[in-house]
Design a protein that fits this description.
This protein is about 40% helix and about 20% strand. By secondary structure, it is an alpha/beta fold. A six-stranded mixed beta sheet has the order 7-6-5-8-9-10, with helices on both faces. Strands 1-4 form a two-stranded antiparallel ribbon. It is globular and about 50 Å long.
C-alpha cells in the first residue's frame, strides 16, 4: 500500500516538479552538478496538488507540533505555501528573507510575530539545510521559539541531517529522495541502469562530476 510519501512523490513526477536527468546533469546554485532537480513551486499551478500540499503540511503540523502559535515561511520558495498553511490553521504568518532588505525598514522578518511565540517554519525544499536554518536562527534572534519545520521535500543528505540535529530542529517532510527514485523507477521515468549513477551522486554530491 502506498504511503503519502509515495503518493506525493508520484504527483511531483507527474507535473514535472521533479526532473531526473542522469545523463544530462543540472548545475545547482551552489555549483554542484546534479542529475536531480526539484522545483516544488510548480505545485502552486495545479489546484488539486496545491490543496494536497496545504492539507498534508497542515496535517503534519497538527499532529507533530500541535502547540504552534504562528507559521513562518522561508523566502522565496515557501512564502506561498506558508501563507496557505497559516490561513488554513488560522494562525499568524510571517516570512523570513535570506538577507535583510537594503532599503526601507531593512527587515529580515516580514510580518508581525510576537516574541516568545512557538513557531513552525514552512520550507519547500531541503538540500544542505543552510538557508533553512538561517531562517530558524533569524526567528530565534527575534525571540521566537522554533518548535519544528515542515517541508515538501528533502534530499536527505547527511550534512543536512547533522545540521538540523545540531540546531535542534525537528524536520518533517511530505516526501524525500528515496521515495521519488522508487516511484520514478516504478513508472519507467528512469531505468534500472540509471540507479548506479544516481547512487554515486547521492553518496558524494559535492564532488560528483557527472557520468
Amino acid at each position: 500500500m502506498d504511503t503519502m510519501k509515495d503518493i506525493f512523490a508520484r504527483r511531483l513526477l507527474e507535473v514535472k516538479a521533479i526532473k531526473l536527468q542522469p545523463k544530462e546533469p543540472f548545475t545547482w546554485a551552489s555549483g554542484w552538478l546534479s542529475p536531480f532537480y526539484c522545483d516544488n513551486r510548480k505545485t502552486l499551478s495545479y489546484p488539486s496538488l496545491r490543496s494536497l500540499v496545504k492539507t498534508e503540511l497542515c496535517h503534519n503540523i497538527l499532529e507533530q507540533f500541535p502547540d504552534a502559535d504562528a507559521i513562518a515561511g522561508v523566502a522565496t520558495g515557501a512564502i506561498a505555501q506558508g501563507a496557505l498553511v497559516a490561513d488554513q490553521l488560522g494562525l499568524p504568518f510571517c516570512y523570513v528573507r535570506s538577507k535583510a532588505k537594503d532599503h526601507g525598514m531593512q527587515n529580515l522578518i516580514e510580518g508581525n510575530i510576537d516574541k516568545g511565540a512557538k513557531v513552525v517554519v514552512v520550507e519547500d525544499l531541503i538540500s544542505t539545510g543552510g538557508s533553512s536554518l538561517k531562517a530558524v536562527e533569524a526567528l530565534r534572534q527575534h525571540g521566537c521559539q522554533v518548535i519544528g519545520m515542515v517541508a515538501s521535500y528533502t534530499y536527505g543528505f547527511p550534512v543536512a541531517e547533522e545540521a538540523f540535529k545540531e540546531a535542534q530542529v525537528r524536520l518533517v517532510t511530505l516526501t524525500d529522495y528515496d521515495h521519488v527514485v522508487k516511484q520514478a523507477l516504478a513508472t519507467g521515468y528512469i531505468k534500472q541502469e540509471d540507479m548506479a549513477l544516481l547512487s554515486q551522486w547521492r553518496n558524494n554530491p559535492s564532488e560528483w562530476k557527472g557520468k
